[in-house]
Design goal:
DJ-1/PfpI; 327 residues; alpha/beta; Lipocalin; Class_I_gatase-like; signal; seven-stranded mixed sheet; DJ-1/PfpI domain-containing protein; single chain; INH-QAR
């Protein structure tokens, strides 16, 4: 760690603790599809922090902020979850000292608001896949970060310029930007922030009150990637009677990688870039000196995808059928 980095970090902490001695404002960013644990875990840590002084000071002031004050839904086991009415919109929210961004749908308004907070030197924390929102806002370019271990592959593919750190509870990207792993990791990151501001004894006091026995905020030991479930699928189809296409899907957690075999064209284990949007499915791969593409559609959960495969300018109808899973 360079002296410049250390100095910047200390200045950020001093500004946070000193300029807002009465209260430290913590803004929880929410959007449609916000994850409850990502909000609740960190909220509980900051809410339960009571200083061991003669006034038993509660140093944090908490509030929610969203694109508007329109009620929105959290996650809810495949259905709309609980309804939350945000305290503020981005346009009228009080200036925060700390920003917490959990997993959520996001959007351009969130990205612009995060850029402003970061530019103003506010402490920005992401929890779980909230790291995607920070990265999309450009806050992690060329820096280190982590996210939920199921989504490490997705993150690495979307943000190749971010140094992804695995098997940790949280990562400090710069003097005032942090990313946490999945769900309960947000509690560890928040306790870490409490420890940075008020000392480890105070953070332990907060953890004890919560009856939280996790030690990740002290050790930063995360979840081994190998604990993520691994699933395999094989999709088959033909563009000619003698030309079979085999698309292999390997999914670790929620991150999938794809390879394609076309034996008749001497293509084996070709890396394949797949994109999905609504019911549309497209993919591309190198075949010989060119690039072959497929564009088709299939309902969610479907066992067949029908579309057009184009190679060397020639279009072929192609239906890929799910041949096997969990190989």
């Amino acid at each position: 760690m360079t002296m410049k980095y250390v100095t910047a970090f200390l200045l950020a902490m001093l500004m946070l603790a000193g300029a807002n001695a009465a209260t430290i404002k913590v803004a929880f960013v929410i959007n449609e599809g916000a994850n409850v644990m990502d909000i609740a875990g960190s909220w509980e840590v900051f809410q339960d922090t009571m200083l061991d002084d003669d006034k038993e000071t509660m140093p944090f002031e908490l509030y929610t902020v969203a694109p508007s004050k329109t009620p929105l839904h959290t996650t809810g086991s495949g259905r709309p979850g609980m309804t939350i009415t945000p305290d503020y919109g981005f346009s009228d929210a009080p200036a925060p000292d700390i920003v917490v961004v959990g997993a959520q749908s996001g959007g351009p308004e969130l990205r612009e608001w995060l850029k402003r907070q970061h530019a103003d030197g506010k402490t920005v924390l992401s929890v779980c896949t909230g790291a995607f929102q920070l990265a999309r806002a450009g806050l992690l370019n060329g820096k280190s970060a982590t996210t939920h271990h199921w989504y490490l592959g997705n993150f690495a593919e979307e943000f190749p310029d971010v140094k992804l750190v695995r098997e940790v509870r949280f990562v400090q990207a710069d003097p005032h930007t942090y990313t946490a792993g999945g769900l309960s990791s947000g509690m560890d990151l928040s306790l870490h922030i409490v420890a940075e501001l008020f000392g480890q004894q105070q953070a332990q006091r907060t953890a004890n009150y919560m009856e939280y026995q996790g030690t990740g905020w002290k050790t930063n030991a995360g979840v081994a990637v190998l604990t993520a479930p691994v699933k395999r699928q094989l999709w088959r189809g033909r563009i000619k009677p003698d030309t079979e296409i085999l698309l292999h899907v390997l999914t670790t957690g929620a991150s999938s990688t794809y390879t394609t075999d076309i034996p008749a064209l001497h293509v084996a284990d070709a890396p394949t870039r797949v994109k999905t949007a609504d019911h549309l499915v497209t993919f591309s791969l190198a075949v010989g000196d060119g690039v072959a593409t497929f564009s088709g559609s299939g309902e969610a959960g479907a066992t067949a995808i029908s579309g057009t495969f184009i190679q060397d300018g020639v279009a072929y109808p192609l239906t890929l059928s799910l041949s096997a899973r969990d190989l």
